[in-house]
């Protein structure tokens, strides 16, 4: 998959394997790609401790039928792993599957770790504001999500939250014992950027182009910025890329912006490594404010690219303004431009931020993330 969640899953599993954990990654059987091909998509090589197993699923336009067939196939394969391979820990981040397996946990005797990236019933309440073409969620659907989350959080042997604010939400919303929740943010492949030195006077954005990502704010800010901008992201079957191109034309800044469209994960690294400034222009919404731990934040820091990001609580967990990044008022193009122009005008500040952010990101490698997770696994 092209999205950040699959990048996070695969890199976490690969790093766990490298750390000595035997990992079976269960995926839907939707293609004939080999394990080597799937890992190569993310620029990774096979490892003897990592097995990617394709789980059969009924191909149906009905999501209920497709999901149920997948859950049953997973259950069957987990039974095999538990009995034949003595696998004792399940690590999950999909709510539907986690809820399904929580019902039969007692039957198999496995331990159960759930990694939370958001609170689903709260996201459902706001998803029509965040995602194009989404309809407001019904009360019935939100209640269903709440019950599933309550069950999963109660039955999990350990919980992982990707931000401290998310952990606080779990404790407040679901009365989870805070001692059961570990905060483990996302990470970056720091080795990708070893030896990075050649830089261009260029600004870069990498990621999805959904409205809540705030890229329109960045495009508007380009009216006040002289350096060129490269925007990497946008899938051909989605309308966001074309909408941003049209906005750039309307504002008269199209000549300063290069839209590359979607690039593979490892291909983006080459572009990121050459840019001087990376912008994370998230809008002020519940996901960005409380739950986000952007891969591109850590990757930008690893690439020795100065970060300019929206001033939101989740971002402040990593970024200290004018120490290892610059922060601006979310949704404010002029404030974004001012932060970028400050870096352009003050080379000394940019150098300081780049060095401090590179030092900061050493604690956020996939290896460090896997090490924290392995400690949890070993303690179960």
Can you put this structure into words, describing what you see?
By secondary structure, the protein is α/β, with parallel strands linked by helices. Helices cover 48% and strands 16% of the residues. It contains 17 helices and twelve strands. Helix 1 crosses helix 17 and helix 13 (295-302) crosses helix 16. It is globular.
Low-confidence stretches: none
Number of H- or I-type helical stretches: 17
Percent helix among the residues? Answer: 40-55%
Distance between the termini: 31 Å
Q: Look at the structure and give the CATH class of the largest domain.
A: Alpha Beta
What proportion of the residues form beta strands (DSSP E)?
Answer: 15-25%
Going across the biggest sheet, name each strand in turn. Answer: 9-8-7-10-11-12
Biggest sheet descriptor: 6 strands, parallel
- The secondary-structure class comes to alpha/beta
In CATH, the homologous superfamily of the largest domain goes by the name Glycogen Phosphorylase B
CATH fold name of the largest domain: Rossmann fold
The SSE string, one letter per element, is HEHEHEHHEHHEHEEHEHEHEHHEHEHHH
Mean pLDDT: 93
Strands, total number: 12
CATH architecture assignment of the largest domain: 3-Layer(aba) Sandwich
- Backbone shape: globular
